[in-house]
Amino acid sequence: MKKHLQTTFQTRQYMLSKDFEIYYYDDYNLSKVDLHTHDYYEFYFFLEGDISIEIARQVYSLKFGDVLVVPPYIPHRPIIHNMKVPYRRFVLWISQNYYDYLLSNSCDYGYLPTYVLENQCFIFHNEKIQFYTIQSKIIQLIEEEHSSHFGRSTQLNLCISDLILFLNRILYKRNHPISKIEEVALYQKILSYIEEHLDENLSLDCLAKEFYMSKYHISHVFKDNLGLSIHQYITKKRLALCKQAIQGQMSITEAYQSFGFGDYSSFYRAFKKEYGISPKDFRDMQMDL
Question: What are the mean pLDDT values of the chain's consecutive 10-residue runs (289 residues total)?
Fold first, then answer.
């Protein structure tokens, strides 16, 4: 690890940034760290050292490649056994507001923190090859943080999103070992159900209840097979039906209400984005023809 990317350890337990902070620590002499909590998410990536970690009254021994996730307000502390061995780790802090921003882009980011809180499972072991991939993403993030490149802010957001999504994906796949045959069968069932219920509520929560599976699992299976999210696919199908209905002289209002759009404004935006023309202009063009 490049020396200029290393951070001097400090006892501060609050964020200076409103979004996220990333650190690489390599220490030999550290004083005792007391049990503490904070109002942000902490992602901890262990590299080397003779220490344990106490989280929510449970003590964990650490080995290279371990990833720890500490949600807000969960008490934790490192327990240092021997400082003759260098204590090396990456630490990523993410504010609750920024994590909410990630979730507003995709519920996929929510699988990991939800699993951690529901199961009180804070530590995840990784094989070396897998952890090297995680480490490369972290180093890219740190290097970008220390750069002055054009588009730095945008690239930092992309790096954070990529890293957090990758961690969610690792855990999801670990918890959902499924054969390709089973995956394709589920995907086809979801497709058929969507086709038959386009005029109804097709939210991920509703699909999860219908198929007795988590919405994260359904979302991943669908996107892995089609390359589109369920929301994107449903929107495209509904728009195609609305377009055909308008071509068949159905009124715009009746069309969007018949095929699952809750209001005209959302239908208008989706239609114009998909076809490059407003619903009214499309109808008028059809009438002229």
Answer: 65 86 87 88 95 94 95 94 88 96 93 94 92 94 92 95 95 80 85 90 88 83 87 92 90 90 90 92 81
Sign (positive or negative) of CA dihedral 210, 211, 217, 219: negative
Written in H, E and C, the secondary structure of the chain is CCHHHCCCCCCCCCCCCCCEEEEEEEECCCCCCCCECCCEEEEEEEEECEEEEEECCEEEECCCCCEEEECCCCCEEEEEEECCCCEEEEEEEEEHHHHHHHHHHCHHHHHHHHHHHHHCCCEECCCHHHHHHHHHHHHHHHHHHCCCCCCHHHHHHHHHHHHHHHHHHHHHHHHCCCCHHHHHHHHHHHHHHHHHCCCCCCCHHHHHHHHCCCHHHHHHHHHHHHCCCHHHHHHHHHHHHHHHHHHCCCCHHHHHHHCCCCCHHHHHHHHHHHHCCCHHHHHHHHHHC
Q: How many CB atoms lie within 10 A of CB 182?
A: 11
By residue count, the chain amounts to 289
Please report, as a single letter, which amino acid is at residue 143. Answer: E
pLDDT of residue 79: 92
Strands across the sheet containing 20-27 = 20-27, 87-95, 40-48, 67-70, 123-124
According to DSSP, the β-strands at 67-70 and 123-124 are antiparallel
Amino acid symbol at 55: I
| Residue 194, pLDDT score | 92
Structure-token pair, residue 3: 């020396």
- The whole-number pLDDT of residue 36 equals 92
Amino acid at 17: S
The answer to whether 149 touches 155, Cβ cutoff 8 Å, is: yes
